[in-house]
Amino acid sequence: MTALLEVREVRKSFGGLHALNGCSLTVQEGTVAGLIGPNGSGKTTLFNVITGYERADAGTVAFGGQDVTGLATGKIGGLGVGRTFQLTRVFNRLTLLENLQVGRAGVPRERRGELYGPARCMELLDFVGLTALAQAQAGSLSYGQRKLVELAMVLAQEPKVVLLDEPAGGINPTLIGQIADRIGELNRRGMTFLVVEHNMEFVMGLCDVISVMERGAVIACGRPEEVRKDPRVLDAYLGGALDDGPDDGPGGPTGQTEGIEGAQP
Amino acid sequence: MNDPLATPLWRGARVGTAGLALIAAVAFPFVFTNPAVTSVAMFTLLFVGSSSAWNLFSGYSGYMALGNAVFFGSGAYFLANVAKDLHLKGGIGIFALVPLAGLFAGLVGVPVGWLALRTRRHTFVVVTISIFFVFQLLAYNLHSLTNGSGGMQLPMPPWLADTYNNYFYAAALVVAVVAIALSWAVRRSRFGLDLLAIRDDEDRARGLGVRTERVKLAAFALTGFITGMCGAITAYYLGSIYPPFVFDALFDVTIALMAFLGGLGTVTGPVVGALLLEPMQQYLTLRFSNAGISLILFGCLFLLVIRFLPEGVVPSLARLLRHVLRTRGEPQAGPGDPPPYDSPADHSPAAREVPR
Question: What pTM, to 2 d.p., does this model score?
Fold first, then answer.
């Protein structure tokens, strides 16, 4: 297995807050990697740095052996890094079909019809089960449905690795199962995933390896059953709730107790 | 969701209406020969063009430009200068320069857009207004190009009074049709989709690989092209131009108001808005002369539109029509509507192919 995505010693500060504090992470090709950690531990910031939405203060991000640190978001997307957002970001006043047709990162002109043509987009909508709503405005959909639209939007870009930011957050259990099925199916076809998620059942069931973040750095990494027993991980979740550190984000402690559900053996 | 207005019947009705409107527009000067009427009609068509052009950039992309008179004035002064430098005589030939004036205004749009489009939202609005005033000031002071407040004369056409307006009416109609056709073509293209995506979430669009800077600038310049042609025709019609008349702040607001009234971001919205507002504005000016009352009424109307028709006339009517068609066709609550919550029925786990 080769490393598809390699993050090395990335630092990112917002004023006095060190959101990423020497964070390193490797995602192997063909795996589903999980990324967990208390609220405010820097998971979303890491996603933003990897995908170019934010610039790292220090450190490097390499994708497929190529240094992509500081490249424009569109460029990084064009290389094959797709992502979804914690709060969905779909184009509210466009139809679902139109949503899937936006963007063309790195696609040669002659392949655009094939990739962004209505037939291909309907296939993707069918894959996430939203064919019937193809002509509906994305803004009129429920939160869970918008998450699925986002997934389809990312797939339309034909990414090599997909970064999912809380794909199961705020979604009903039936739908969560379906999202997990879809991810598993795509993974079997060779797509790599990096998933941030608080739902432990979802993460433990889906991921091959799990990395744990705490205060801007990865503190543990391993197979789900190893991570589950790692004392540092339990400390990051439970310890953080007991001695409330100064740089915990708002709502930190509540998020931590929420996160531990199902993590105990 | 099945759109009841997307059936072949309604699509045919729309095409038919457009065709009838075009025939009516062509026949208009033959039916109403009074020069006072054809003059109003010509200005209305120019506003159809200018407002559609405004909508092409601002309506689609969400960037509310309030300085499009920059294009209007640039086109007007371009025509005046070319006609002066080449010692052209009045006649139909002058109209051949109108597209060139449009191109010039479009070129002006490139550096202006490059500057203004570094900003977003409210800042963008303020920057466009500021650039507009810079251009007005330049028109007052660049004497070699504009003759300052002395104004510039354009060649006098040799036409008789009773058919005089018809030439300008025809030119305005061509520009209006071009503007509508471009709006329609852009709306249906990938370029238009990129603009609409920028309106909804610009950073996300960029993340998906939309070259946002290029797309915005291209639309801005295209708007300049159409608006510049409207300015050139206006200049030729008026015969003489002065800085405050072609670089007119009221023009900036009017074309935006027309698009707001008709329906922002729709192809027909600005057309409907211009058809409603321009004759009214002309009437008010005629009725109350220059007392400024027309401006006050105009401002009040703007507030009313924002308050009661935030979507505009066209989308509101379309919504009403859809509602009527749905309730008549399907007595039970519209099953075509998206379910409000995640319903498992919509995501049946029937084995799906992974699209590759």
Answer: 0.80
